[in-house]
Write a structure and sequence with these properties.
Bound molecules: zinc ion
Helix content: 25-40%
Order of helices and strands: HEHEHEHEEEEEEHHEHEHEHEH
Distance between the termini: 53 Å
Number of domains: 2
Number of strands: 13
CATH topology of the largest domain: Rossmann fold
Structural class: alpha/beta
């Protein structure tokens, strides 16, 4: 199969004389920032590209410090996929050091972006602030990530309060698959049809996943659909499946934020007043704050959701599809029993 593919690419190379894109005699070397994104890219790439994650499984991208090996791997890559919308705080630094010349594709381009609510959300039913790359651009904190978000030079407003955790709705990942297929096809035109076909087949699985989660959530009575989270990373899930977001303890959309004692006290008071039974924490986060809150408010901690990264192959969330199924079951199970 590998020999046949090589032969077909060779023919395509001869036939595409004058094309500006270099045809690939070797499979594309593709990097993705997170393990979750690398899994989605690998599904679209199939056996026609090799895909590696910068941030390993079981590791929080919010806290990630790139290594010298990352810089080396990136300098050898044909293409880098990022989540975008201000998610990867480390990426501009890495690109400045080592990534000159590697094309960067933010898969969130074209996704309807929600604003971070800042830690205390009375109602999860947020309206999008715009379409990334078209009517809104997102910048991560004070660090200018615009160059990492693609090549947009338009006049879209730059926001620093974008919620990048779009993958918590599988429908947004369908947008990702289209961006990924387009970028792989542009870099490797000889395999364009295969990339688009892989994306289409995977999109069918994502639609089925969305229906499956919807059916699971429907088994939970509506008054139990309330989410209290450690940081604000389940907003897209909440909006898609009809959960109220009672609060996120840490402000600013990152696990690395800090909270002042007054705000923590007001969240504990809110949790007590509303009888919220559970705080949900991603497995990669420090659980100390959530444990304190849970103890003070007398509620349960579920600290094994996979949100920022996949688990290793032996864990419960080795792929994006597994991750979403596992989280949905864990959330619905914990709230149903409360
Ligand atoms: Zn996060």
């Amino acid at each position: 199969m590998r020999i046949l593919c090589g032969w077909m690419v060779g023919v395509a190379l001869v036939l595409s004389i004058g094309a500006s894109v270099t045809a690939q005699s070797e499979p594309l070397q593709v990097m993705a920032t997170t393990s979750l994104l690398a899994d989605v890219v690998a599904r679209v790439a199939g056996d026609r590209a090799s895909v590696e994650a910068l941030v390993p499984a079981d590791t929080d991208a919010h806290a990630y410090e790139p290594t010298a090996d990352d810089a080396l791997r990136l300098s050898r890559a044909d293409l880098l996929f990022t989540v975008g919308a201000g998610y990867e705080g480390f990426i501009q630094r890495l690109l400045d050091n080592a990534g000159a010349g590697v094309p960067v594709v933010a898969v969130n381009d074209g996704v309807a972006i929600l604003a971070l609510a800042g830690g205390e959300t009375p109602d999860g039913a947020a309206d999008p602030i715009g379409i990334l790359g078209s009517t809104v651009e997102c910048t991560e904190h004070s660090h200018d990530d615009a160059a990492a978000s693609g090549d947009h030079t338009g006049d879209e407003p730059h926001r620093t309060d974008c919620d990048p955790h779009t993958w918590m709705s599988p429908l947004n990942v369908i947008v990702w698959t289209q961006n990924i297929a387009d970028a792989l096809a542009a870099a490797d035109p000889a395999n364009a049809d295969a990339y688009h076909e892989n994306a289409s087949l995977y999109a069918d699985e994502l639609q089925a996943l969305d229906a499956e989660i919807g059916a699971l959530v429907a088994s939970l009575s509506p008054e139990k659909r309330r989410l209290l989270t450690n940081h604000e990373n389940m907003q897209y899930f909440a909006v898609r499946y009809g959960f109220e977001q009672v609060a996120a303890v840490l402000p600013g959309g990152t696990s690395q934020a800090e909270i002042d004692p007054q705000t923590l006290a007001s969240i504990i008071a809110l949790v007590r007043a509303q009888g919220v039974p559970v705080i949900f924490v991603e497995v990669t986060a420090n659980t100390a704050l959530a444990e304190t809150l849970a103890q003070d408010a007398g509620i349960q901690v579920v600290s094994d959701l996979y949100i920022e990264a996949l688990s290793g192959p032996e864990g419960p969330a080795p792929t994006y599809l597994d991750l979403m199924r596992y989280n949905a079951q864990r959330i619905v199970g914990a709230l149903a029993g409360s």
